[in-house]
Design brief:
The chain is of the alpha/beta class. The chain has helices spanning 21-27, 31-51, 65-71, 88-101, 140-150, 164-171, 191-199; strands spanning 55-59, 80-85, 110-112, 125-131, 151-160, 202-210, 213-220. α3 links the parallel β1 and β2 (80-85). The radius of gyration is 17 Å and the shape is globular. The relative contact order is 0.14.
């Protein structure tokens, strides 16, 4: 169900202390962290552009930072982008940013939904991307199946690259008692484990790293049909 969240939006109503972790990450003024995020987003935009997708879903769009980067790419100006997220607070921020920066006709349609049960028919999008989401899902394999189901071609994914992500957290004094492990992360993926997960549903076209994250893009596997 699509939702209009602008009425919940008030500038400054979401403090960093109480906000979604993704918002804290993107608003952090630390220059090293901002550089890492910019480098990560450049790679994501490059990969999205390389697919030629015209109809795109951001599954786990959060506050809309990646969508903003895609909107800024001239080669994607004509692409249709939709966003879903489980967090109403994140979507409210997203809607508020759109209202402040864009005319209504250019707003990205947002839907509150669970990645485990996406409210779209099969093969709805040329490309589905889901960044920093799988590690949060109780059933990441089910989530990946849903992402693949609603894509007609490409799926783009990223997760923290472990153990380096935890190591970086620990060295900067974050989550010390958990040895750098984010309490919101239900799964930790090494490069091999992530590629194995992605390969369950997709033909992996590229798997690489943008410290402290890893990224993979794949295409839906062709299903064999037995004709009798």
């Amino acid at each position: 169900m699509s939702i209009v969240l602008s009425k919940f939006w008030k500038r400054g109503s979401l403090s960093m202390k109480n906000s979604h972790g993704n918002l804290q990450k993107h608003l952090n003024p630390n220059p090293a962290q901002r550089w890492l995020l910019e480098r990560f987003h450049r790679r994501i935009v490059q990969l999205v552009v390389s697919t030629g997708a015209q109809n795109i879903l951001d599954a786990g769009c959060g506050e809309g930072f990646t969508i903003q980067k895609l909107r800024a790419a001239k080669t994607l100006e004509q692409s249709e982008i939709a966003g879903i997220d489980f967090s109403a607070a994140a979507l409210a921020w997203n809607q508020g940013q759109q209202s402040n920066l864009l005319p209504a006709e250019k707003h990205t349609p947002l839907t509150q939904a669970d990645v485990h049960r996406l409210p779209f028919p099969d093969n709805s999008f040329d490309l589905v991307y889901s960044l920093e989401v799988l590690e949060h899902l109780p059933d990441s394999s089910l989530g990946l199946r849903e992402l693949t189901r609603v894509s007609r071609d490409y799926v783009l994914l990223s997760v923290p690259h472990e153990p380096f992500f935890r190591g970086a957290n620990f060295l900067r004094g974050k989550h010390i008692r958990a040895f750098g492990n984010d309490p919101e992360h239900l799964h930790n993926y090494s490069g091999r484990a992530f590629r194995q997960l992605v390969s369950e549903q997709l033909e992996v076209l590229w798997h690489g790293y943008s410290f402290p994250w890893q990224i993979a893009i794949g295409r839906k596997k062709q299903r064999n049909i037995n004709l009798k």
